[in-house]
Amino acid sequence: MNLSRIVSAAALTTTLLVAICAYGIDKETVLYNFNSSTSGGSGPFGGLVMDQSGNFYGIGLSGIFFELSPNGSGGWNYSDLYNCSSCSYPMGPLVMDHAGNFYTSNYFGDVFEFSPNGSGGWSESLVYNFNPQSRGTGPSNLLIDGGGNLYGVEVAGGAKGVGYVFELSPNSVGGWTLTDLHDFDGHDGAGGAGAAGVVGGLIMDAAGSLYGTTFSGGGDTLCGGICGVVFKLTNNAGVWTETVLHSFNKTGGANPDAPLLMDAAGNLYGTTTTGGTDGFGVVFETSLVSGTWHTRVLYNFTNVGGDGAYPQSALIMDSVGNLYGTTESGGGSTNCSVETDNGCGTAFKLSRSGSNWKESILHAFQGKGDGGFPGAVILDSSGNLYSDAFVGGRYNLGVVFELSPPLAAIGQ
């Protein structure tokens, strides 16, 4: 069996930098094996969202909205909450509002809402259609604020035709109103997505400013405007102003397509799908130092020794500052391929080692019973990681999994 999943890859080889790589000993437990395209779903995509009761929610490639709940006996109960055939090919994890409604976007330019129907079931409604026509990808995964407004990035259209940042807000007649917050012009970023169609979403700070990345565009002369940017949008009395915090240049990473992470000090962390010393992507940090934004590479993925390749999902951080994420490929397996590279993906941890960072592989996916092509991970209070994997499992239709560290390793 050889499973193939396409992501963007401009494999560039430059001077090799030494990276410290170690293998962890996390234990993987498969919580659920997807078993049918009509009952039990298939191809869970992008990661999970957890509510305050510890229940997981996600959506599969075919548009089945599902819940996985602890059963009180150490196991899990799976429920198909809603089968939405028009919601297929989602663009990332769901987001949830304070009322318990869930939202997602998909590859075809639709934004959907799943809501409890008052009778113990769920209903689905179309929030907005971006009408992507022939361009082949929809908006990014979504961000929701405390007022229930949705934010994202559209990869085409806008005043300059290369994409824009949008807000969708509930209106007084029960519908939604679209507002164009910023039009990219190429130099300050541009739309686009890898061959898998994934587009990076947004995050928001306490002051209401938005931060994100673009897959293409930018002003770096070595990159020719195709490697992407890190940007900030600031709201001044309803007028949004963009600041480019960093333009990627291939050797320092290229083509980001995952949301950023912000720590308590306002530092930004993210991944690029390509670029770096070996062309397999990087983990980077963008920080404000003495009034100027600086970006540095924390880790270059080399795909040597199974350290991973092509990271394509958001990072998370634990209470002591360790970073966790997944890669789309790498890990050493020959059961899967991405572009010309073998590997079913990895789950990794980055921890500080003096002024450098050390990578630990928590799990190298084999594309068999353990899954393959993992989504973004979430972390519980006990240090366990959870996510979904697009393929693999008992029926080769994907899994939901848990990675549990040994007690001595929690918080290190």
Note down, in words, how this protein is organized.
There is one protein chain. The chain is mostly beta strands and 412 residues long. The chain has a single domain (3-21, 41-319), classed as 6 Propeller (Neuraminidase), CATH 2.120.10. Helix content is 0%, strand content 43%. β4 and β5 form a beta hairpin. Mean pLDDT is 88; it is low at 1-23.
List the domain count as a whole number.
1
- The proportion of residues in beta strands is 35-45%
- The count of DSSP E runs of length 2 or more, i.e. the number of strands, is 34
**Rg from Cα:** 20 Å
- Mean pLDDT rating: 88
CATH topology: Neuraminidase
Q: Major β-sheet, in short?
A: 6 strands, mixed
Give the count of helical stretches.
Answer: 0
Which CATH C-level class is it? Mainly Beta
Distance N terminus to C terminus?
Answer: 37 Å
Structural class: mainly beta
What sort of overall outline do the alpha carbons produce when their principal axes are compared? globular
Helix content: under 10%
Unreliable residue runs: 1-23
Using the 3D structure, state the CATH architecture. 6 Propeller
Oligomer kind:
single chain
